[in-house]
Design brief:
The chain is elongated and about 80 Å long. The chain has 2 helices and 40 strands. It is mainly beta and 422 residues long. The strands form 12 sheets. The chain has a 4-stranded antiparallel β-sheet with strand order 13-40-39-38, with no helix packed on it. It has a 4-stranded antiparallel β-sheet with strand order 14-15-16-17, with no helix packed on it. It folds into 3 domains: 1-78, no CATH class; 88-134, no CATH class; 144-420, YVTN repeat-like/Quinoprotein amine dehydrogenase (Methylamine Dehydrogenase, Chain H, 7 Propeller).
Length: 422
């Protein structure tokens, strides 16, 4: 039986093989056979593999071999692994150098394609490990590239899923929730750990303390935790819920689609209240149990805590509401003619501030932070807002919360978490 011997060098993605058969060697002169034998041994010593291919089979370079006797030759295949490859093994079983961003790796591991990042160029470094280099004018902060900084840093994203809300009971007890029911917790040191998955998208999070935390979301989802990392589901409506807030463990509100307003005294039961609107309600905030505000597509509602709600002014589409106290309340807006932030001193009237942003939080009247899609803004309370120029180019900011003047978080799309450290 005749044999075809295929010689391939594992260091190349595609090779033109050298094939020798016993019949071809017999046709050579003695000297030529000797030269061929030396060449054969030299190639093997250089790290090539010798493969006897079956007749008519496809060779690694896409060609075919035919045994001159019509038989099947013995097979000696090259196997790409840690002992045969210094680079990485691609999907076709070839050993490549592992230094390309499309085929990066070392030690016979499977090649990986280095992911692209916003404002950066993917790299495969000298250690054959994927990384990235920030574009001009950007600097690396964690695993993203940012413009500016002003004390803000990006914390390692635990997910590529959008995060929609952030809240904490203290600087060492912070939650972020978002799409797909994702829930993450941080002790304030930059690391985030996943907790129970709620399944439905989560849009809001709030708690009366470290041992009493709520999150709300799609299809009437309300989940509650005692701070042990476990969450218990409660659902009394099919309407999506967007906001949750309270003045204490016995006074909690959840608001959502179709004008939904629900109240709980903390006993696990929720009572639906009549809002007087069928439009979505996105946010709820209260300075006290007898001073509660809800913001939504049709404007702002107010209640004294008696379960009845009264519209306040004609302020258009409101996306959120938050205040420092009963006489200092802000409500950002959306849409033509209603995009500006409204302010109230608690007398039932609202004044256009001329500012534009989506979320606001502050530690005091002279230290306010806001986000407007792709910017983080700051104000000393004088009506002027300064763009802090903290951007990655990848995120839209959805949530904003802080524990104090120098400890503020914002979360957003693609798992973005930016933190102003104390």
């Amino acid at each position: 039986m005749a044999e075809n011997w295929l010689l391939t060098r594992p260091g190349a993605v595609k090779t033109t093989p050298m094939r020798f058969s016993p019949s071809s060697l017999r046709s050579l002169s003695g000297a030529a056979v000797c030269v061929a034998s030396v060449l054969f041994a030299t190639v093997l010593a250089a790290g090539c593999s010798a493969t006897a291919e079956p007749a008519g089979a496809s060779s690694p370079d896409g060609g075919a071999t035919t045994d001159d006797a019509g038989g099947i030759a013995p097979v000696m295949p090259f196997v790409c692994n840690v002992t045969t490859c210094k680079g990485c093994c691609n999907a076709h079983g070839y050993c490549v150098d592992g230094k390309s961003t499309t085929a990066c790796g070392v030690g016979g591991e499977s090649c990986q394609s280095c992911p692209e990042k916003q404002n950066a160029t993917a790299t495969c470094d000298a250690k054959r490990t994927c990384g990235f280099t920030c574009d001009a004018a950007f600097t690396q902060a964690g695993n993203v590239c940012v413009i500016g900084g002003n004390g803000w840093t990006a914390e390692p994203a635990p997910t590529a899923t959008d995060l929609e809300a952030v809240w904490g009971s203290s600087a060492s007890d912070v939650y972020a929730v978002g799409k797909g029911g994702t829930i993450f917790h941080s002790a304030g040191k930059g690391a985030w750990t996943a907790q129970s998955d709620a399944g439905e998208d989560l849009h809001g999070v709030w708690g009366s303390g470290s041992g009493d935390v709520y999150a709300v979301g799609g299809t009437g989802t309300i989940i509650r935790s005692t701070g042990d990392g476990k969450w218990k589901a409660v659902s009394v409506t099919n309407d999506d819920l967007y906001g949750v807030f309270g003045t204490g463990s016995g006074d909690v509100y959840a608001v959502g689609n179709h004008g939904t307003i629900m109240h709980s005294t903390g006993d696990g039961k929720w009572v639906v209240q009549t809002s007087g609107t069928s439009e979505p309600l996105y946010s709820v905030w209260a300075s006290a149990s007898n001073d509660v505000y809800v913001a939504g597509r049709n404007g702002i509602l107010h209640s004294t805590g008696n379960g009845k709600w009264t519209p306040q002014g004609t302020v258009g589409y409101r996306t959120s509401i938050w205040g420092l106290g009963s006489t200092d309340i802000y409500s950002p807006g959306l849409g033509v003619g209603s995009e500006y932030v409204m302010h109230s001193t608690g007398d039932g009237t609202w004044t256009d501030t001329g500012s534009e942003f989506d979320h606001i939080w502050g530690s005091g009247s002279t230290n306010l932070y806001a986000t407007n899609v792709v910017s983080i803004l700051h104000s000393t309370g004088n009506g002027t807002w300064t763009d802090l120029n903290v951007k990655t180019g990848a995120e839209t900011f959805y949530g904003l919360w802080g524990s104090g003047a120098g400890d503020v978080y914002t979360v957003g799309s693609k798992g973005s978490i930016l933190h102003l450290h104390p």
